[in-house]
Amino acid sequence: MRALLLAHAMTTPLFHRKILCNFYLFCLLRHPLSLDTPSAIVRVECASWVAVLHVSNFSGVQGVREPQWTLAALRMTDGVAPQLDQRHKATAGEYAVGLVLEHTLDANYARNSYSDEDDNVSFVLPVLISKIEGVSLSHSDSTNKVQKEDMDIDDTLLDEKARRTRDLLASFYSPIPSASSNNPFSKHISPDDINSSSFQPDQYMKIMARKSNLEGLLQKHVEMVAEIKNLDTDLQMLVYENYNKFICATDTIKRMKSNILGMEENMEQLLEKIMSVQSRSDSVNTSLCENREHIEKMHRTCNLLRKVQFIYDLPDRLGKCIKSEAYADAVRFYIGSMPIFKAYGDSSFQDCKRASEEAIAIIVKNLQGKVFSDSESMQVRAEAAVLLKQLNFPVDYLKTKLLEKLELSLTDVQIIPEVMKNEYPSVHEAAINEFVEALRAFRVIFPDSEKQLVKLAQDLLTKLGSLPYNAKYFVIIEAYVMTRICSEDLLGVLRVIWNDVLRLVEVLEDISLSNNSLEATKNAVKLYIRSAFFHLMQDISDHLLKVLKRGGAEEYSLEVALDASIKAVYDGGRNVLLDIHKILDDNLEIVDKLRELIIDWVQQGYQNFFRELEVQFLSFLGRNNSSATQSHGLEGAQGDKAFPRLALDLAASFCRGSAGGYDYVLSFVPGVISQKFRAAGEKFLQLYINMRTQRISLLLKKRFATPNWVKHKEPREVHMCVDLFLQELKITGNEVKQILPQDLTKHRRADSNGSSASSRSNSFREEKEKLSRSNIQKGRSQQLLETHLAKLFKQKVEIFTKVEYTQESVVMTIVKLCLKSLQEYARLQTFNRSGFQQIQLDIQFLRTPLKEIVEDEAAMDFLLDEVIVAAVERCLDPIPLELPILDRLIQAKLAQHKEFDLISP
Amino acid sequence: MQAASSGIGYGLKYQARCISDVKADTDHTSFLAGTLSLKEENEVHLIRLSSSGTELFCEGLFSHPNEIWDLVSCPFDQRIFSTVYSNGETYGAAIWQIPELYGELNSPQLERITSLDTDSGKIKCILWWPSGRHDKLISINEENMYLWNLDVSKKTAQVQSQDSAGMLHKLSGGAWDPHDVSSVAATCESYLQFWDVRTMKKTISVECSHVCSVDYHPQKQHILVTAEYESGIHIWDLRKPKVPIQELPGHTHWTWTVKCNPEYDGMILSSGTDSTVNLWLASTNHDDLTTERLVDSSARWVDPLLNSYSDYEDSIYGLTWSSREPWIFASLSYDGRVRLQMTEMPDDHARSVVIDTYLCVKLNRGNSLVGNHLFSVVVNLRFQHVDFTLLSLGNKALYQLKEI
């Protein structure tokens, strides 16, 4: 049974504590003999006490006050009880309850504990009751209950002992004493269970008797007896062991008590001695007090006197300092005595103050001199400035004065780029050196003046600031750049400035300065590039204007002007490039930084330049157009003539330029530009052709409008209009020859084809003549039909083809247009026979000279024939001239021409 | 520009200079053409487009006593027309009437209503009152301009007023302003002279050299187009007569005639002595800033030349739009060939035209112009075979069309 209990207890977390309690209990039980003595009572007390301590400790640790622990303590005392009489029991119980109360400080708790397990602690009831009532009077009902139960106890006193022992063990070993009672199920199910609290022996016996036979009962009896014996011995063993331990503990406590006894006396002795020491030290202290105060007073007076002495000596001392130039000391002395002068300067130390102030004035003067003197070393000057500052001297005033001085010196540092080339190095170097030195000094003297200095330096460099506008470096440069300068000059100036800037930066340690100047340089270079292009543009337009003005005057001048303008464009462009190259090649730091930008600018500049050039061409075109149409003159036209060529050349040259790698960095968009120029050139060419044709057209119009063709007289000679026409063509030819190139390939081909072409045209002409002759006989409609047929069979001549940039093409176009006009004019008239013959004669005459001029004879012949056809169609009586007469008249004209040529070659 | 398909041809017997659209004939697309033959019997052809639209046939052939230098059909009576003729030495002008029952006669003679004979000068052209039935006529000869009062029924014409061109100036042609009927423009050698016909006084003149043909914009007042021998085509706004609002390059040789499309705004036809007819699409919207901006932004006017018809053998002097079917024009080259051409614009132009119309409708909002623009949409649809163009246009135009 005990093993079962133990096993049960093992499962609970409180197992270890129970083992401990069990151990103490055992100790008590092992020494039952000594319990009768008073010492035995003490032991019991101790045992209970230690047990309670443990219990309370454990429960304290646990944080839960478990009633079973206090109960366990009580039961321990109770366990000892069989050997004690009632009196002892009560004493022990009282003690234990006191302890429990003391530890738990909870009367209700204690009482509940007792009421729960009243029967176990009945021996302490009277004590308990009184104690509990002392703690809590209100719980009378529970006490009543206790009292009632008390009476029951008397009835069952006989069985009490056995039952108590059993219960004690059962409750001790079960984790929750109320568990068995709180478990009605288990109670119900096993009234015959020998281990349960609700075990009923009678019932058990009855069941046993009913269930088992005699042998079984006997066997059961033997088993039970053996079990009971075992339990008893076990119980005894446990109690003995516990008790043994208790005794040891009691012995230890007794020993401790005896040791403590002598301590009190020693302590009292110690106290007495300390008291006597204190009283003595007090007496010494009081006796020394007076003397000390006196000494302190004396000391103070002495100090004061020393100070007064110092102040009286101050003027002399200062004087000495001035003599030895130990200004620092002097200033220190003076400043040291300042508070006194301030306090008493008006009364007792008046003279003294005055004297020292005089001395200080001298010092200040000297110091000022030092600060301003350039001969003194920087260190000295800086020190002087610091001293002056200490003396509350208005340093700012000094500073401004010095700054003014610096600003004055700025004018010496001026750059005059024009002069720069010759005398610069020495003069400017010196000036800038001086300035830089001054700056450095200033910086040392006034360490906090950096901002002002930077501003000053910027003044020098850029537009900001108060200096007169034209005195800034970069303003000067910008102005300088606007004039025509070459890149070396610019570079020279830039180099100088950059050096200066570097030095300034070195002195001032301010990056913004160099940044600013970099910015300014950027502007300057940009400006330079722009102005370079501007000048280039100007040059070219000058040339063009010259061309315009002189255009009509002399023939050669056209060529010259043209060449000049082309050269201007070429050379100008190249020069600009070279210049910029120089800038780029130079490894000046500032330029290095700007390299990319410069390249960009130049490219931009070029593109703008070409664009502008084109615009200018176009505007020239417009201007000439209007002027030419107004005056019907050719002066403008001649000028115009130059442009297509110029534009063309430019286009070509830039095409070439881009192809040959004009410059490795400058890769602008030459394709677009040359295309533009080409277009412009075409426009010029077209304009030129238009003007030429218009003029001839006018001539022809007059020719056709003036005479009355219906009443025309017989032709006597070739009309002078033809001369005029040829003359115009000649002029045109000359102009074209000057400017446009010959188309070599075409020319050659024309030559080689010349004979065949002319033969074809000749044959055609003959045919035509035959035709026209036969026409006379045939009907009109038939004639028309035949001309139509002839036209159909003949290869259709492309009259209007694209103009090319060759002499031949231009002349041919003009001739074609004029002949077509001639045809149209003819169609508008009505001729009589003579009128027609006149036209025939004129056209016939035209053939030969035109052949010389014109490249495509076939087309020309065709057109001339067309004129004649037109005239035939519009003729009332189209009988052509007889060939001999025609020849004769033409010969006469030719002779006349030769004559004319001879007279005026 | 590639040459368009050669169109429908018709041959005159002789050389010819003039062709006129018969405006008054609302049932057929007909033209009148007169020959220019110095020695032969000259003819006036009444040419009609067959209903199938594929053939030109001769509806009537009438002999005309002299070679015809100018021929204009009467705007209110299809049987009446005017000619300017010459016998080689002298010039004259007359109003003619095509006889009724001309089809049944063997060789029908033209009825001369009246001749517009003046004392002097080489008569150049006759101008009819621009639209509708009116008794006023203008004849222009080299020196003078006459305003005639024509009475068809009485067969008389009287000079109502006249004015001289001034010394040293020779008039060559003219046009009557369809918007302001009191104004007539006449071409002079180096400028354009305007007359107010009510007072017969000169009003303004526009300086342009060698102008040979002038035409008013049929929809927009103040806009007029001139052709000049050598410097192409100019479009003028008469409110700003100093400079033309637009210049078109014209022809390689002389630009002889210029005609505005009677319905579609900005479509201009020109013919020249380089044997080509050019179709231009010009912007005349300069007074309409919004449209102009739209035009600029879309950059549609890069090449104003829509098409060039170059399939001719000789110079083209006669040119006219059909007023009945304004996508058709007739041209007459000197060798006597009439050619009827349906204008066909390239895809994107047709599209732009439709979009333009859409914009115009949108912008104008008013109803007055909608009719015209509807028409031009239809015109363009005819050009491009309706469905193709519209399908590629997207919802906007379709929607707009429905709305119209």
Q: What this model shows, in words?
A:
Chain B: WD repeats lie at residues 248-280. Chain B: InterPro entries: Beta-prop_EIPR1-like (IPR059104), EIPR1 (IPR040323), WD40/YVTN_repeat-like_dom_sf (IPR015943), WD40_repeat_dom_sf (IPR036322), WD40_rpt (IPR001680). Chain B: Keywords: Repeat, WD repeat. The complex is a heterodimer of chains A (905) and B (404). Chain A has 905 residues and is mainly α. Chain A folds into four domains: 2-178 and 238-255, no CATH class; 394-509; 530-685; 711-903, no CATH class. Chain A contains 34 helices and no strands. In chain A, helix 29 runs parallel beside helix 33 (857-873) and helix 32 packs antiparallel against helix 33 (857-873). In chain B, the strands form seven sheets. Chain B has a four-stranded antiparallel β-sheet, with no helix packed on it. Chain B is mainly β and 404 residues long. Chain B has helices at 289-298, 347-364, 370-384, 387-391, 395-403, and strands at residues 8-11, 16-21, 30-35, 42-49, 56-64, 67-73, 80-86, 91-97, 111-115, 123-128, 136-141, 144-151, 156-164, 173-176, 183-187, 191-196, 201-207, 211-216, 223-228, 232-237, 246-248, 255-260, 267-272, 277-281, 305-309, 316-321, 328-333, 337-342.
